[in-house]
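== Polypeptide entry ==
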Amino acid sequence: GGLTREDAHFSRFILRDIFPGGQLTLVKVVKEKAAEAGFELLREHALGPHYARTLDTWAEKLIASKDEAIALSSEATYDKYVQYLTGSSERFKNSRINVVQFTLEAGDTPAE
């Protein structure tokens, strides 16, 4: 399926409140740019399900430390990061977003 209204809203939230000015690169663009620079793609490994577990752990620890976290920042900041961690985890679990590790090998010369 394509991008849902909820996904678009969550993406705006991330760009506005968590990573202002941030931008994710599409997998196809990474592969194109790597090839243009003379790299051979040896392996592409999707890590989304693993990263979801990491986000769940971070969310659990943040929630368990709620009072301390709010004392260090604010309740609004705490709420934003709980929303970010839990919302991102759900999207990784449902393959709505992903994190990908590439193994590249340098070639002799960049592609012309």
User: Anything to note?
Assistant: The chain has a mean pLDDT of 93.
